[in-house]
Design brief:
The protein is an all-beta fold. The chain has one domain. It is 0% helix and 38% strand. Strands 1, 2, 4, 7, 8, 9, 10, 11, 12, 14 and 15 form an eleven-stranded mixed sheet that branches. A two-stranded antiparallel ribbon has the order 3-13. The chain has a two-stranded antiparallel sheet with strand order 5-6. It is globular, with a radius of gyration of 21 Å.
C-alpha cells in the first residue's frame, strides 16, 4: 500500500519483496524479486491520547494518538481522521539529580475505526502545547473547546489579552486566545535534526532516515508531553513486506 501524498514533505526508499507461499516448500529457487521504490511521506497532525513522562515511563509502554485530520494519498489511500496511531516507548532515561532526560518514541501502526490496522512509518516534525481550555472562538460555546475537547467550567486563560489579564488593550474584549493553527509542511522540517517544539522545556530531534519516530530531551528535568499535545507528523502507509532503506 503506497502512500504518494500530494502534500508531500519527504521521500524514503522501500524494498518490496514478493514471496510466493507455495515456493517455500518447493525445491530451492532463485531469490524472490526485490523491487525498489521511492515513496513520499504525507504531512498531517495527531493529538496525544495520554501524558508521556520520562519520570515513570518504561521501555515498551504503549503510546497512542489520534489523527486530527484526514490524510489523503495520491494513490487513493485515505488515512482517516480519528484513526489511532499506535506506538511505544523504545528508550527512556529519566532525570537524576536534576540531570538531563531522554525519551525515544516510535509509532508504527495506524488503526482506523472498524478496519484492520495499517503498518506505517511516522516521523515527528513538531510539537505544540495543548490548546487552552475556554470558550470556542468559532462557536462561542463554553462547553466545547477547540478541536472538540470538553472544557473545565472554571478554567480561564491568564496572560496578555486573555481572561483575567490586566494587560489587554483598552476597548478590546478579554477573550481567551487559542494557539494559532500549526503548519506542518515547512521546508525547514526536511533534512534537519532539531524540530519545532512549543512544549516548554522539551526539544524534539528526528529524521526520516531513523527507524524511530522522534527523540525528546529536556535539560535538568524529566521530558514530558502533556495529554492532548499536538504533533505534526510525516506518515506513510507501508506494504506488508516493505523494508525501509
Amino acid at each position: 500500500m503506497a502512500c504518494l501524498a500530494p502534500r508531500s514533505i519527504a521521500k524514503i526508499l522501500v524494498l518490496i519483496t514478493a514471496i510466493d507461499a507455495k515456493a517455500q516448500s518447493d525445491p530451492p529457487k532463485p531469490p524472490p524479486k526485490v523491487e525498489t521504490r521511492q515513496l513520499q511521506m504525507a504531512a498531517g497532525k495527531a493529538r496525544l491520547d495520554k501524558k508521556v513522562d520520562a519520570k515513570n515511563a518504561k521501555v515498551g509502554d504503549p503510546v497512542t494518538a489520534k489523527l486530527m485530520e484526514d490524510i489523503q494519498c495520491a494513490d487513493g489511500v485515505l488515512l482517516p481522521k480519528d484513526a489511532t496511531l499506535s506506538g511505544r516507548v523504545v528508550e527512556v532515561q529519566p532525570s537524576e539529580n536534576k540531570g538531563d532526560s531522554r525519551l525515544v518514541l516510535t509509532f508504527d501502526e495506524l488503526v482506523p475505526k472498524g478496519k484492520p490496522p495499517i503498518r506505517v512509518k511516522v516521523t515527528l516534525l513538531g510539537l505544540s502545547s495543548p490548546p487552552v481550555q475556554g470558550p470556542d472562538l468559532v462557536t462561542g460555546k463554553r462547553e466545547i473547546d477547540l478541536e472538540g475537547l470538553p472544557t473545565a467550567a472554571s478554567t480561564t486563560r491568564r496572560g496578555p489579552g486573555g481572561v483575567g489579564s490586566k494587560n489587554a488593550p483598552p476597548g478590546t474584549s478579554r477573550v481567551p486566545i487559542a494557539s494559532p493553527p500549526a503548519t506542518h509542511d515547512q521546508p525547514s522540517h526536511v533534512g534537519g535534526e532539531l524540530k519545532d517544539s512549543s512544549v516548554p522545556g522539551v526539544e524534539l530531534n528526528s529524521s526520516i532516515q531513523e527507524p524511530n519516530s522522534g527523540t525528546l530531551t529536556s535539560k535538568g528535568k524529566n521530558a514530558q508531553l502533556p495529554l492532548w499535545t499536538q504533533m505534526r507528523i510525516a506518515i506513510i502507509a507501508l506494504p506488508p513486506d516493505a523494508v525501509i532503506k
